[in-house]
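User:
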Amino acid sequence: MRLNDYQRRIILETVKTCFGHQARVRLFGSRTDDHARGGDIDLLISTDMQDARDVVRAEMRCQARLQQVLGEQKIDMLIDYPGRRSHPAILDIAKSSGLPL
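Assistant: Predicted structure:
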């Protein structure tokens, strides 16, 4: 995993602040490969929030806070929540290959 302890702690704390303490975070994509270089931070966030508008607001707050603390980096968030209308295949890939923070 190509995130240091500080980055992992900040991401986890920020996600829990924005999405609730029950939220879980997995890192997936190129940052899970210790031998790769570069790449954006791909996060799968699982939350119990049910209202899509609340999820969008939480995602925007989370993205802004992470940018403030971690600096300008490309951070992609995939949000899984009950009642999600679509279930893109990337959700299954992120769940199966992602590493928990």
